[in-house]
Amino acid sequence: MKPLHTPKPAQIWVDADACPAVIRDILFRAAARTGTPVTLVANHSLSTPPLPHVRAIQVPGGPDAADDAIVERVAAGDLVVTQDIPLAARVLGAGAAAVGPRGEPFTSNIIKERLSVRGFMEESHGEGIATGGPPALHARDRQAFAAQLDRWLAAQPRPPL
Question: InterPro entries, alphabetically (predicted)?
């Protein structure tokens, strides 16, 4: 007997404005391997490989336009790849999971901590103290991201054969 309602498969949303190319490549390989839909959202044109489960959405420029587009489309159970702490908080509130390109899953506690640090850094920057940006992405970061992605993919229900 066929179920009356087949749940929509979870998909991966990428805040692509600041997502490193090497992380996008890991996501493209995962989409090719598993058939999981991957959607890149950015305020600039993006090239994607010719894979049936990969697409890009270009949104108008403006503050948080890509974030807003992701929040409008994300569903409970989806995964969002982002470095943006406020976006991570918004998608967690929608029932989705969020992970950074270094493989760290965002939780409510981590988000609170990061927002506190961010506020301090913004204050320091406003006072003329050089705060710098995030460190370069290393091989261990790529491995951590790939491992976290694999854990999320393994937890997804498989469609019936």
Answer: UPF0178 (IPR003791)
